[in-house]
Design goal:
The protein has 205 residues and is of the alpha+beta class. It contains five helices and 14 strands. The protein is globular, with a radius of gyration of 18 Å.
């Protein structure tokens, strides 16, 4: 599954269809003729889970981001969307999150048709749109520790591991920070008299 905004520009001259598992889906499927087969699983857990817990576990299993869709946390329910290609692998290997046993139960994809992603909206002031600067402001920790997080592969940008601390955030970028959550960069709302940026972002709930 692909992040929509990252590749749609490259497909302008190609005839294709787009399948969205739900209206606000970040990751969609581009296809020419037949929609690839997908599955929706509800994750049953005895302990509360966070989006980053689930996403981090998927990456720890060496699963490519193209093999799964959005991770959904809806109140006390947790869902993952996967391509059928990895169904057996997921069922055999995804059995623990946060050192707690979990169970995968198949669900109809139709239960997501009315799902709407929930966010909290924030504004911060930052001196730069570099991701290390913005993440340092969001988490209130220094940039050197952010660089360490990048080296430790603890920050995901548009469903890929972030490798460059100098990456400049663009409108619509989705990023996750281990132990802090998932965010969407909305953009710059204005500049201050000292030429800093007032930045708006959303935190996924």
């Amino acid at each position: 599954m692909k992040d929509y905004k990252r590749i749609v520009c490259g497909l302008k001259k190609i005839k294709y269809n787009i399948y969205r598992p739900f209206n606000d889906a970040t990751k969609v499927i581009f296809y020419k003729d037949n929609i690839p087969k997908i599955k929706l699983y509800e994750i049953k857990s005895d302990i509360p889970l966070r989006h980053q817990d689930i996403l981090g576990t998927l990456y720890s299993l060496n699963i490519s981001s193209e093999m799964f869709g959005d991770v959904i946390v809806d109140n006390d329910k947790y869902y993952i969307i996967i391509l059928n290609l990895i169904d057996n692998y997921i069922n055999q290997n995804l059995n623990m999150i946060k050192n707690s046993n979990i169970k995968l139960e198949p669900r109809s994809i139709n239960i997501l048709k009315n799902y709407e992603q929930k966010y909290e909206e924030y504004e911060i002031i930052a001196s730069s749109l570099r991701i290390d600067t913005v993440v340092a402001r969001i988490t209130n920790i220094n940039r050197q520790k952010i660089i360490d997080k990048i080296k430790n592969k603890e920050i995901i940008i548009n469903y890929e591991v972030l490798t460059k601390s100098s990456y400049i955030l663009k409108e619509g970028d989705i990023f996750s920070i281990k132990k802090y959550g998932k965010y969407k960069f909305i953009g710059v709302t204005k500049q201050t008299k000292k030429n800093n940026y007032v930045i708006k972002y959303l935190k996924y709930i």
